Amino acid sequence: MADDNMGSYVEPGEFRRDTNYITTRITADGRDGYAVEPDRYRLVAARACPWANRTLIVRRLLGLEPVLSLGLAGPTHDKLSWTFDLDPGEVDPVLGIHHLRDAYLKRFPDYPRGITVPAIVDISTGEVVTNDYAQMTLDFSTEWTAFHRPGAPDLYPEHLRAEIDELNREVFREVNNGVYRCGFAGSQDAYDAAYTRLFAALDRLSTQRYLVGDTITEADVRLFTTLVRFDPVYHGHFKTNRSKLTEMPVLWAYARDLFQTPGFGDTVDFGQIKEHYYVVHRDVNPTGIIPAGPDLSNWLTPHGREALGGRPFGDGTPPPPPIPSERVPVLA
Questions:
Q1: Which residues are documented as binding site for glutathione?
Q2: Residue 297, pLDDT score
Q3: Are residues 219 and 125 located together in one domain of the fold?
Q4: Same domain, 142 and 231
Q5: Is 31 exposed, middle or buried (0-12, 13-18, 19+ CB in 10 A)?
Q6: The pLDDT of residue 4
Q7: End position of a domain, from candidates 125, 147, 169
Q8: Shared domain check, 299 and 185
Q9: 185-218 pLDDT, tens per residue?
Q10: Active site located where (predicted)?
Q11: Does the pLDDT at position 30 exceed 80?
Q12: Residue 152: inside a domain, yes or no?
C-alpha cells in the first residue's frame, strides 16, 4: 500500500503536469522588483530532480557560484514540501528553514500549488521569488551576464534562439515530460500512447554532435537531464522499457559526451536520483525498495563523438572543478 504521507502521482487516464509557476523574473533592470545582485539570492535545488539539475548545470557552466549561493534539498520529500535533510540539524544554513514550503508561504500565504524545485529565494526576506525553471536558466544566460565567469559559453545564442526554443518545446512535450506521462499514466491506453510518442521522439533526435549549432546550448542541457536518468530510473520505474539508453547507440554516445564534459556529469548524483524516484513515488513503487543496478561505470567509457567536430564551449573555456562543498560522488 502506498504511503499517504508521500503523496500520490498516478492520475486517472493521462498524466497532466501543472505548468503554472511563479513567473516573477530576476532581471538586470529589476523590472519585476528583483534585480540581479550578487549574494542576494539563494538557488534551492535537489540533485534528484531533472528540472533542478538543469539549473545546477547552467550555474556551473556560467560560473555563477560566487554570486548565487546553493541550497540543496534532500532526495526525498513528503506531500507537503522538499526539505533540507542534508544539512546539519536539517535546516538550511542560510535560510534557516527545514521546509522549502516556508519560503513559498512567506510570500504567498495561501500558495495553492505544489512546492517545487528549483526555486530562487530572496535571502533578506526569506520569500520565494520564482520557481519557473524553464525561464530561470534562460535568465542565467541573458540577465546575469555581468557575473558570468571569463570564458563562459553562450548557451542561448541570439541567432539560434528560435531554433532552440522550438526544439525545447518538442523535447519537453515528448521526452522530458513524456517519461512522466508513461510513469504516471492511470490507464493502459494513456500509457500506450505516451510510450509510443516518447520513443518516436527519441528515434528522430539529431545525430550531429550537439542539438543546435556546433556548441553546447540550453537545448543540450534540457535533454541531458532526462537521458542521464533513463536507465537508472525511467526504464524500469516508469516502464519506458522498449530500449535502454545503452541500447540506443547515437543517444548513448551523445549522453556520455555530455556527461564527460565539465559542468554536466559533475552535477549528477545517481544515488540521490534513484532514492528520490523509488522512495517518493510509493503509488508506483509501494515497497520503496531501491534497485541495486544498473552498473553506471559505463558512463565513463569512450564515446567517439569528437569525430563529429563541434566545440563544446564555443569560444569559451570549460568551467573549473566544482567547489568542494558541491562535489558529487565520483563513479568508479
A1: 82
A2: 94
A3: no
A4: no
A5: exposed
A6: 55
A7: 147
A8: yes
A9: 999 999 999 999 999 999 988 778 999 999 999 9
A10: 49, 180
A11: yes
A12: no
